[in-house]
Structure formats: C-alpha cells, structure tokens
C-alpha cells in the first residue's frame, strides 16, 4: 500500500479507519484528513478542541461543490458550536458532528449516492 503524501485528487471512499489513521485510494495515512470533492488531504488536527473555522477553510473554499460537511469528532460525539453552524449555513453547507467511525461510514454512503458531501475526520486509535 502506498504512503499518502498530502493530497490525492478525486472522490474516494474511506476503506478503513482506526490505529490512528485512514486507508483510502490504495493509500494509508496516520493522522486526520479532509475529504473534499476535489480530493483527500492531510488535516493537521488531532482533537476536536483544536478545530477552528480557519482549519475548516478548505471546506468553505469549496462550498459551491458541498451541501453537507460531516465532522468526525474523534472517539466521542462533541457538540458543534452555533457559530460554526451559522458560518457554514451562510455558505450553503449543513454541518453535522458525530464520532469519527460514524462520520466515515456516513461519508461513504453519501459518496456512494453521489451526494455533495465533505468530511473532516479526526483520526482515532
């Protein structure tokens, strides 16, 4: 399996998650990822507390291609702040938070349905 070098173009389902990372597009990556319509990229976020609107800017930059953002919050579900919901609503994006495993599975279903979805997934052990 190839090592992920930071960006892989195209929409890819998440083949596996856990052990601190993800497998997708016949590659593996230890750490968190952003899965956007244009491709999957490294996301240097290790915990929900480290997420900022700035760290989610790539999603906002691609807003014209995204209807839903799933945030994989780690092992546990964490409340998405109202200010984030409002900022993404202004960009036309519905934001939902759920544990990373549930977010990865939901992302795969929505990609399979050819929905306009993105995911910000915090790696879990």
From TrEMBL:
Pfam families: DUF498 (PF04430)
Recorded superkingdom: Bacteria
InterPro entries: MTH938-like_sf, NDUFAF3/AAMDC
UniProt-recorded name of the protein: Xcc1710-like domain-containing protein
Protein's organism: Bosea caraganae
């Amino acid at each position: 399996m190839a090592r992920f070098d930071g960006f892989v173009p195209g929409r890819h389902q998440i083949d596996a998650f856990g052990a601190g990372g993800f497998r997708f597009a016949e590659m593996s990556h230890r750490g968190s990822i952003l899965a956007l319509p244009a491709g999957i990229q490294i996301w240097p976020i290790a915990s929900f507390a480290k997420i900022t609107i700035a760290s989610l800017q790539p999603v906002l930059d691609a807003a014209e291609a995204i209807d839903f953002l799933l945030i994989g919050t780690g092992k546990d579900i964490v409340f998405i702040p109202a200010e984030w919901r409002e900022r993404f609503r202004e960009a036309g994006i519905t934001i939902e938070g759920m544990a990373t495993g549930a977010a990865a599975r939901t992302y795969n279903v929505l990609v399979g349905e050819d929905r306009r979805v993105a995911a910000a997934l915090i790696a879990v052990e």
